[in-house]
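Field notebook, page 133. I keep forgetting to write these up properly, so this time I am using the form the group agreed on. The chain and the ligand, zinc ion, are recorded exactly as supplied. Prediction of the bound pose follows.
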Amino acid sequence: MAIKVTSEVLEALREAAKRADPCEACGLLLGEAVQITRFVEASNVHASPETHFEIDPQALIDAHRAARMGGPKLLGYFHSHPKGPAKPSQTDQDMASGDEMIWAIAGESEIAFWHDLPEGFRPLSYAMVDGQN
Ligand SMILES: [Zn+2]
């Protein structure tokens, strides 16, 4: 599977990771079908935000409500590894539910996308596209 991501979203992910450093940034990836068109940054409410993340539950509730009202769908989650690679850590693998959501991870030098499948994380290739706004 390959996905599309707008250049605006990629830039927003980089900015969020930079701003949160040395803590992990996190947020929600929204869009339609296989195209991510929006990033909503969320508070990292984990007690150890330097090495873990937990997306503010209110942000998830808001995103589901907005989707029900006809807004873009929740496609996945984003978080950063301020001092690690752009791939799922052991903690991430333990937390993953295999629900086929997209995980974007910003490492020290790059952003990578992963598919959370029942059998484990698989890398997702992505194409950058221009957003409409
Ligand atoms: Zn992680």
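OBSERVATIONS:
- DSSP finds three helices and seven strands in the chain.
- The helical segments are 7-20, 57-68, 90-95.
FOLLOW-UP: compare against the apo run.
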